[in-house]
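Deliverable D4.2, example record:
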Amino acid sequence: MKAKTLFYCTECGNETAKWAGKCPACGAWNTIVEQPERPKGTGKGASVRVGMTRRRACPVTDLTADEEIRFPTGMGELDRVLGGGAVKGSLVLVGGAPGIGKSTQADLWQRYEGAELLNGDRTVLRRMDGVWTAFGSPYAGSSNCFVNESRPVRAIVLLSQGSACSLRRLSPAAAFRGLYAGMTVNLWDDRYVARVCDLLAALDVPVYALTCTPDRAAVDCLKAELEHETA
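Output generated by the structure prediction step:
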């Protein structure tokens, strides 16, 4: 069977089913490139939840809410999708262009640190009571991986591939540029763009650039920095 392919913009990361000279999302010209589509279940991106053990599936009738501390997000439609609100915890967001290795890094964190995925493609971020919080939205792309929970964001990591692992914390300006390029932004709506810029300017979560290899060294490199930050 012939492998399916998808196209994505190297400028903003937007994915399309066919090639075009101009990106329909960001308007950039000659930035659409082709790559093989990942099998379902692996995902194109990942948000990694650290320090949690994976739970086995169980019948819906066996589920309880005894241990949940659920709170409303303030967005009615999202609260409805999340079953009445979200549940508190902690999380690290991992981002990068399609094919850069987000799913590989997520798999490594699962294997070596017992991490879980909150969402396999896109999370929803919101600042609540001074804390940046990620919500497990149902928009999971082809990964079909999403969790009906939320976690305070501990750090944001932008990936690139390399022959050796290195990590550096980005300045506010560099973090703004890197995050804006990977966000869903309605460029035709000036108020929307202004709101996105205001939110990014107010971001006080550490943002890192991780040059990584597809092995445990990348996990150890990031873990050491996270532990140092909280020491």
